[in-house]
Amino acid sequence: MKLKPGDTIAIISPAGEIANREIFFKKVDEIKALGFKIKIFPNALNKNGYLAGSDEERLEDLHGAFSDGEVNAILCSRGGYGTLRLLDKIDYNIVKNNPKIFIGSSDITNLLIAFYARANLKSFHALMLLNGFSQRDINLINNQKEILAQKKHKIFIKGEAKGILWGGNLSTVTALFGSDSYLPDDEIILFLEDINEPLYKIDKMLLQILRNKDLKNKIKGIIFGQFSGLSAKDLKLSENLFFQYAKKFDVPCVLGYSIGHVKNSILIPFGRYVNLVGSKIYLL
Known about the structure:
Elements: E1 8-12, H1 21-32, E2 37-40, H2 55-67, E3 73-76, H3 92-97, E4 101-104, H4 109-119, E5 123-125, H5 135-142, E6 154-157, E7 160-169, H6 170-175, E8 188-195, H7 199-211, H8 213-216, E9 219-228, H9 232-249, E10 253-255, E11 268-270, E12 273-277, E13 280-283
Parallel strand pairs: 1-2, 1-3, 3-4, 4-5, 7-8, 8-9, 9-10
Antiparallel strand pairs: 5-11, 6-10, 7-12, 12-13
């Protein structure tokens, strides 16, 4: 599936509320200017505390966007929190029977993981409406081989590993532990990022992954993305922490990909089979 001018992009808010409508509509206009039709779903601008409407309202838009025959792609407005509350209520047959380009990150990690596990939908971990989705991301959706980063990255453990790209926001991934399994059957190249988490919590969450044997045994390579919002002290210590965990996992491991809550975050085709060689990702 590719995105071309004239296609319809649905905008939904399955997680946090939209605090600034002016910015929301400015971003919508920017995508329209690229030649796309925009369909804002009825509950996208709702507010229910820190959520973009009730669970039922957000679920209604999610199901509606997949069911809508005019919609070619679904772009989440933002992350925040809220998708975890929807996972047990989603009709995954709707997703499976109406596959579409689905784009999100941060808290939307829950949906990327669940859609792959329950509906075999390959999606896109990428910038969203409010934090910078642009022509660059559309180009990457249409030509995924261009995700290969040009700059050099820090290689903790050299080697080669094959698997599907799987992961996303670290705290969101670990929040799934202990519930119904959303783990893939495939071997994985795990990619991780987060924002505003102190280093000791990152340590704890990486340890949770290490101790989750079902997940650990599937990990054949690791890509550490950006962990934004660290204090100056923690930032200096973070590379050593990631190196410690690279040794514990003992699989090819690289640090420094621009994945996460940063303006230049690259698009990752979630669920695509890849080969990690040194610091390079090759789509297979």
